[in-house]
Amino acid sequence: MGFLSVLTMAQRWAAEQAPPGSVVIDATAGGGVDTLFLARTVGSAGHVYAFDVQKEALDATRQRLLDASAADKSTETEQTEGGVRDPRGKPYRRAGLAPVQLLHAGHERMGELVATEHKGKVRAVMFNLGYFPAASEEGRKLITLTETTLAALTAALDLLSPGGIITIVLYPGHEGGGEEAAAVADWSAALPASAAQSVVYRFQQKPNAPYLVAIQKR
Question: For site-directed labelling of 27, which of 6, 93, 104, 171 has its Cα 20 to 30 A away?
């Protein structure tokens, strides 16, 4: 028997709390793996927000969505920057997935950019920290930072409905990742039990391997 990977476990826990029709957030779009997963999970009646500061990540995410939905015609993706629709990008309709809103902005701004009608109703927020491995050499130098990550987590918790979940995959093995991982673990452990419960999913014999922190709002 083998344990599930941290990425698979994060998706499993997110899916358990995000039934069809839910509003969900991919806080670190990257190549769009979690964005597509969330769009499939919540279906055409749901809504997905996907944040990234790198345009090449959003381009990769959009392409993944289009590739996955080429045989169907009902998914909508819209790229926005700072909450304003990018005039160069038209909405795409493909596949039986949720509408996906691509936001060219830091995830710490999610409290500002998520629509008012969705605040307090989000069912899952997924973070996959570190850097975008498929980025250009220069792009791979851009990593998530402790300060903005903690600000984004605070915003995410505010956006959740009771029972909603945040999953955070942490990478202590890269430069700066250990500090960020420790700060996130400390932040989650310090949350009042009356506000949320937090768990850690980690392979104990591999201290530098990625691990998962999950937070469920009460």
Answer: 93
